[in-house]
Specification:
13 helices, ten-stranded mixed beta sheet, 20% strand, 338 residues, binds S-adenosyl-L-homocysteine, two-stranded parallel sheet
Length: 338
Amino acid sequence: MENIFNYPKKDLEDYLVAKGYKKFLASQIFDWLYNKQEYDFNNYTNIKKETIDFLKATFSTAFITITKVEEDTDVKKFLFTLKDGQKIESVLMYHNYGLSVCVSSQVGCNMGCKFCESGRLKKVRDLETYEMLEQAIAISNYVKQKIDSVVIMGIGEPFDNFTNVMKFINLLNDPKVLAIGARHITVSTCGLVPKIKAFADMELQVNLALSLHSPTDEKRKQIMNVAKAYSLKEVFEALKYYQNKTKRRVTIEYIMLDKINDTKEDALALSKLLNGYNVYVNLIPYNETKNIAFKASSKKQIALFYDTLKKNGLDVTVRHKFGNKISAACGQLRSKEI
Ligand code: SAH
């Protein structure tokens, strides 16, 4: 039985029409699910009994459940338990521009970035669309506030779960579901070239972030397995392709690892590499975890790196560090739990 929250509106309409029902039934169902938040088909008073029986026999509405919440002043971290007992996490951040949720796209991750806690634990499975959507809905209900933006930057590689993530984006964006504008949705990839191109072909106004982490293939290969599959040349060709299609500015994520990728030489090479691209660089202070030996760059080193990029004409920000008191590193909450 498939979960009804897996269906974007158009997919549900197509499915229902193929089964001999009216397209309008999808609108009625969406109104119950997302507007009235009524999940028991028996209570769908404007729908015929036989149709309700069909819905009950065809779709499930099972939920993911909140297992644990860790709170700090500017952030809440949620541990969820899925139907099969797997655990994932999401983060709610209070920005001055509104509430932002960082969602997971997989249980674990196969990309094998050496500094990452989720990569260390490997992928168990992809998340279904509803499991991503419900992270956002459950958090919005928990805090009783509307979510303003969503970043797909939690556990997992979204482009390794492409179809479900695209359906999820469609639902986030739907005015009847979460009504989050495309420009308020960001998907972050470690650089799966064919999927960057496929994403570009969809011509969405959704933001793309690229986890770059090093300006040279040689160094990148040492910390990210994906660099063995795709060279920087290929990654940047894909970025160009994406930008020609969408005219969107791309975020370059750069994690600051002590003595690994944080020298002045790295900053100069990065400036050179990004020269001429419509990008901005987000420097990410590394969250150390006890299972991994990498150390965070010092504040001073981050400031030097930042200045070098600025002097070379790049737009740069240093990512705000949320919630120092809680397990802030991506995947740490889940990892502690299993
Ligand atoms: N797989 C996707 C999205 C999930 S990771 C990607 O690679 O972009 C989201 C971001 O968090 C990536 O930039 C990743 O490199 C970074 N990250 C992973 N572990 C981290 C840690 N311990 N501290 C800070 N950032 C981390």
